[in-house]
Amino acid sequence: MSDRVLVTGAAGFIGSHVCEALLARGQSVVGVDNFDPFYPRAVKERNLTALRGAAGFQFVEADIVRHAMPLDGVSVVLHLAARPGVRPSLEDPASYSETNVTGTVRVLEAARRAGIARIVFGSSSSVYGDTTPPPFAEDAAAVWPISPYAASKRAGELMAEAFAHLYGMRIACLRFFTVYGPRQRPDLAIHRFTSLIATGKPVRMHGDGSSERDYTYITDCVDGVLAAMEWTARPGGAANGTGVAEPINIGGGARVRLDRLIELIARTLGREARIERHPDQPGDVRLTAADLRRAERELAYRPAVGIEAGIRQFVRWHEETHGRES
Ligand SMILES: NC(=O)c1ccc[n+]([C@@H]2O[C@H](COP(=O)([O-])OP(=O)(O)OC[C@H]3O[C@@H](n4cnc5c(N)ncnc54)[C@H](O)[C@@H]3O)[C@@H](O)[C@H]2O)c1
Predict the structure, then answer these.
(1) Is 69 in the pocket of ligand 1 (CB under 6 A)?
(2) Which of 101, 151, 166, 250 is deepest in the core (most CB within 10 A)?
């Protein structure tokens, strides 16, 4: 029976939540991850706690660039493995290109060879760069990335487009807008700020605090991924009969200023935030804002968790795990 789902990046923040949600729906899942050292293996092992030994779940430690993908019995691939992070991509652009471009091509090619036409690719709002007018609509050209990470994600989308066209694949390129929630990557702002404020350390705030982000709570993100997985099963590709690679925004639907975010985290923790001001960082965009009309039309996607409720959940999780994290 070919109804297994392959999830790359299964030990990561989003991937581990997606695997859990798939198992909860009775789906059989094979997860792949190479424990990339971008953040500690111990954290990723902990992400897998609920999955290890769960019925219907198989984990394969493998590198998407170098190893064969376990595609036996797989009908759909959720490709979430990547080198994430905008700022670190300025330090080591080649490794971002290798994992996010070459790795994505390897996954697409392995799927094609195995006769699998259904793919969900984890892309990023960063592809919109600093010049797309808000709210960001998927039809924007998105050809002016301002970091190697953003360029690598856009390149992955373009590879998906070529594979869809050539081989009739049906690919959803989900442009995630800053995802947060329990198990969020330790390098991301909400996690960092929470750890710093909780321990009375100063928070580095880049810019004057007026930059804005559209934040997506993890359960909304997972709903978007699962809806996109169903979308890939729909018949028909583009009008010319070939496949389709459709970019679709997955956002929270509201803009939150950086200074308000810091204040909200501090208030939720019941502490004061000590803010250190620093200049804007190269590679960071000033604003992200998702136009969610396509997601609603194609996926019936409607984010349900606002920033206040989401931060409460995140802080609760952070407090529960505090002391186990570095
Ligand atoms: N978290 C966000 O806010 C966000 C925003 C936009 C896009 N994304 C994208 O969503 C996806 C998941 O992000 P995340 O936040 O869960 O990141 P994450 O780092 O927690 O998860 C990615 C996983 O991929 C694995 N990986 C990296 N290179 C690999 C390789 N060569 N072979 C096998 N596995 C490899 C890592 O070990 C990691 O566990 C990524 O593609 C990321 O670029 C995330």
Answers:
(1) no
(2) 250
